[in-house]
Specification:
It is built from 12 helices and 10 strands. Strand 6, helix 6 and strand 7 form a beta-alpha-beta unit. The strands form 3 sheets. It has a 5-stranded mixed beta sheet with strand order 7-6-8-5-9, covered by helices on one side. It has a 3-stranded antiparallel beta sheet with strand order 3-10-4, sandwiched between helices. Strands 1-2 form a two-stranded parallel sheet.
């Protein structure tokens, strides 16, 4: 069959148009704005941001990994104010921040996504698939505590320690002290910076219980115990990417697919392993992220 030069040119132009629009399997052939990603100011979030940022960069996306800053409130505000384009957050925390009175089963990850998704959509952001990786809230005591459940703490007169945000959250301190939930009367409270300092205060006897995260490696290393949340106060805390809808549209469906594929690969064990390396072995998050991505074969161009 004879192919004319004119027909060949038409075919080449059509193929180029598909690539520029973001179609096809080769992410690097798409074009779009810089994707600014920023972690919150604690090690696990920093490592997660590095994992997503380095992964997208290796897939050919224009990525800028910003200096970590603030916590959830600042992350949501930055996304809404066009200061960042992509955050990865814990869905239960998002529910508490955006729709605390939703009246849903907070242990149901799908119900959480169905609730927070429209809220973000109204503000110009899209919640993508959540990961199987979970970092839940943990009510932590020393190994010699007689308590087995959070309810047991009500009779013990414990000194309670947590980050400042916990004291404002219905699914944290407000729930522990609410007579309709746990009704605990602590003998005293101490505000402690979120992270390893929680474990240090608990080990030193400065407090008797802290709220930490279930993936904190110090819990196992120092013989602490996580009490059973017998009243179901704590929500599901899978991680999920939340991205500017305009940026997602500009890059095309390949970006959505890439992010969902990565999220599906991350496990809770991965979060724990990353935290051991950053919090106990004092490695940098960018190195930890790069090593994991290399092990998974996700940095190959």
């Amino acid at each position: 069959m004879r192919i004319t030069i004119g027909a060949l040119l038409v075919a080449m132009v059509a193929a180029a148009a598909v690539l520029v629009a973001g179609g096809g399997d080769d992410d690097g052939d798409a074009e779009g704005p810089t994707i600014r990603i920023r972690g919150q100011d604690f090690s696990e979030s920093v490592t997660i941001a590095e994992v997503y940022g380095q992964y997208l960069s290796a897939r050919g996306y224009d990525v800028s990994i910003l200096t970590p800053a603030g916590f959830r409130t600042e992350a949501i505000e930055a996304l809404r104010n066009d200061q960042v384009d992509l955050i990865i957050d814990y869905i239960g925390g998002e529910l508490t921040a955006l729709a605390p009175d939703a009246g849903i089963d907070a242990a149901d990850a799908d119900a959480i996504i169905a609730t927070i998704g429209p809220v973000h959509e109204a503000e110009g952001a899209t919640v993508l698939d959540y990961s199987p990786a979970i970092d839940g809230d943990a009510f932590v005591v020393r190994g010699d505590s007689e308590a087995q459940t959070i309810s047991d703490v009500a009779a013990l007169g414990y000194v309670f320690g947590a980050a400042a945000a916990c004291f404002e959250r219905p699914q944290c301190f407000l729930g522990y002290t609410d007579p309709g939930v746990y009704g605990i009367e602590f003998s005293d409270t101490v505000t402690i910076e979120f992270g390893p300092l929680l474990g240090e205060a608990l080990a030193a006897g400065e407090v008797d219980a802290v709220v930490w995260n279930t993936t904190a490696p110090q819990i196992g290393v120092q013989g602490f115990r996580v009490l059973e949340d017998d009243q179901g106060l704590h929500p599901a805390q899978n991680i999920a990417p939340i991205i500017s809808s305009a940026v997602l549209e500009a890059w095309g469906p390949g970006l959505r697919d890439a992010l969902n594929e990565l999220s599906a690969l991350i496990t809770t064990d991965d979060l724990v392993a990353w935290n051991i390396e950053t919090d106990l072995e004092l490695r940098e998050s960018d190195d930890v992220a790069r090593e994991w991505l290399e092990q998974k074969g996700l940095l190959a161009q």
